[in-house]
Amino acid sequence: MPVVDKSRCLRCGGCVSVCPQLAIRLTEHGIEIDPEKCIKCGKCVAFCPVGALKKK
Ligand code: SF4
Ligand code: SF4
Q: Which residue CA neighbors atom 8 of ligand 2 most closely?
């Protein structure tokens, strides 16, 4: 599952839209990924314009 680098994340919400599993939420604490929904497809990692998501 991808990990979020909160110091880089702009909270643009783009990764939320791109996730086919609806596994990503934008909360007041930033991006949260639901480990039970994520299928590790990497789409959010590829999408993020500032490289805030890293594949793990
Ligand atoms: S696409 Fe990147 S910068 Fe935008 S909310 Fe997601 S992790 Fe943050
Ligand atoms: S790796 Fe794929 S399924 Fe997991 S959070 Fe990113 S876009 Fe969603």
A: 19
CATH numeric code, 3-49: 3.30.70.20
Domain boundaries, the chain: 3-49
Task: Give pLDDT tens digits for 3-55.
Answer: 999 999 999 999 999 999 999 999 999 999 999 999 999 999 999 999 999 99
Q: Considering the entire predicted model, what is its pTM?
A: 0.95
CA-nearest residue for atom 4, ligand 2, is: 38
Question: Which atom of ligand 2 is the closest one to the Cα of 40?
Answer: 1
Task: For the chain, give the number of residues.
Answer: 56
Instruction: Count CB atoms within 10 A of the CB of residue 50.
Output: 11
